[in-house]
């Protein structure tokens, strides 16, 4: 029973985790807007979500533990996203920084709204599952 509930909500959990990680990447870009030679980074949310869903569909990829003292890993990099990419600037700056604040703010806001929408959707899904389990 718990496995079915976990499976039902796994996609939403992956989406929320990736939205959180993207928010951190975008916040890092904004925080370094005035840092010389800083290169703005981002990742393709859709492809990362497909990868996460595929991993969970086939059984989560895990790292091999060669000693009982090792901590098990999830198969992802330390940032959680395997494929951080550099953003190509629309206009180059003299100090080598590639952060476009208008674009970063726009992407940050879009990601925030989508994160909140995912939370709302997940909350309504949990409520409907709880009501289905309640005896009448």
TrEMBL record:
This is Flagellar basal body rod protein FlgB. Residues 9-39 form the Flagellar basal body rod protein N-terminal domain. Belongs to the flagella basal body rod proteins family. One of its GO terms (biological process) is bacterial-type flagellum-dependent cell motility. NCBIfam families: FlgB (TIGR01396). Transmembrane segments: none annotated. GO terms for cellular component: bacterial-type flagellum basal body, rod. InterPro entries: Flag_bb_rod_N, FlgB. It is found in: Bacterial flagellum basal body. The keyword Magnesium does not apply. It holds the Pfam family Flg_bb_rod. Keywords: Bacterial flagellum, Cell projection, Cilium, Flagellum. Coiled coil: none annotated. Structural component of flagellum, the bacterial motility apparatus. Part of the rod structure of flagellar basal body. The basal body constitutes a major portion of the flagellar organelle and consists of a number of rings mounted on a central rod. The keyword Nucleotide-binding does not apply.
């Amino acid at each position: 029973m718990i496995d079915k509930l976990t499976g039902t909500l796994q996609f939403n959990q992956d989406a929320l985790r990736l939205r959180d990680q993207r928010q951190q990447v975008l916040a890092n870009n904004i925080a370094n807007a005035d840092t010389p030679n800083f290169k703005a980074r981002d990742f393709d949310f859709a492809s990362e979500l497909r990868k996460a869903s595929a991993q969970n569909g086939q059984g989560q990829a895990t790292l091999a533990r060669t000693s009982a003292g090792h901590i098990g890993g999830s198969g992802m990099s330390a940032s959680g996203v395997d494929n951080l990419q550099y953003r190509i600037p629309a206009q180059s700056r003299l100090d080598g920084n590639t952060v476009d604040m208008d674009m970063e703010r726009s992407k940050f806001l879009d990601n925030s709204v989508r994160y909140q929408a995912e939370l709302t959707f997940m909350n309504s899904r949990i409520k409907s599952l709880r009501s289905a389990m309640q005896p009448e």
